[in-house]
Amino acid sequence: MAENDEYVPDFDISRPTIARVYDAILGGKDNFAADREGAAAYMKYVPNAKDVALDNRAGLKKGVEYMARKGIDQFLDIGAGLPTMENTHQIAQAINPDAKVVYVDNDPIVLAHGRALLATNKSTTIVTADLRDPQSILDNEEVQAALDFTRPIGLMVVGLHMHFHDDEQPDEWVRVLMDACPSGSYLLITDFVDTGEPLQKAIEQAGLESLGNGWIRTPERIREHFLGLPLVDDKLEFIPRWFPGEPDREVPAVEDLEPWHKIMMGGIAYKA
């Protein structure tokens, strides 16, 4: 952890943020009135919004477990959000107690709450930075101290792309980070998908009303997030059907999924 653990940054509670709205949807306590209003907008359009958020967490868990079992012991979790159930460090360190995790989020409240929670976990670091400025993440002294960029890294951009319009070219920000990761690294992504389901459009409307962002994308467009790297099992899939490393596993048919289970897709790419 940093030497200034006692530092608690200022933050604006009058406007909703991604991390705090997500926390409110999950029933957490680290949010304010504006965030709860944002969560209510999601619930208005998608009453099962909490299940969608839980799908996202399930995608994170599956991805981290896969990478840890493949020997990844360094994780860079971008847009990590507020601590909730089964966070990246808990999942990774359950498999490898020596795994190192760096959380990055642009919401200062994540730093304030996370550092208090992780005060005794010396293998986990939280920094305030923004994916829009990827070089600042790579140049961050705490990131450099925690991660060895000469060894494979699990780069995670979970539930984040939807908050950036394609005009912002978010794939290029991720490319800067992935270019800094050596061969043997992985890229884990989950995103809102557009396969023509009405509830997918509903969650886009909810996001635009709540946060001013939250765009859905076709599976073909989401595959482009992986920067041309090959996907594990060649699969981008709805989270309940996605089990990386288990291509022959029996999974529910798409038509048997509840509508809210067809909002998030996940995938992992490997950098050879």
UniProtKB/TrEMBL annotation:
One of its GO terms (molecular function) is methyltransferase activity. Keywords: Methyltransferase, Transferase. One of its GO terms (biological process) is methylation. It holds the Pfam family Methyltransf_19. InterPro entries: SAM-dependent_MTases_sf, SAM_dep_MeTrfase_SAV2177_type. This is SAM-dependent methyltransferase. The lineage of its organism: Bacteria, Bacillati, Actinomycetota, Actinomycetes, Glycomycetales.
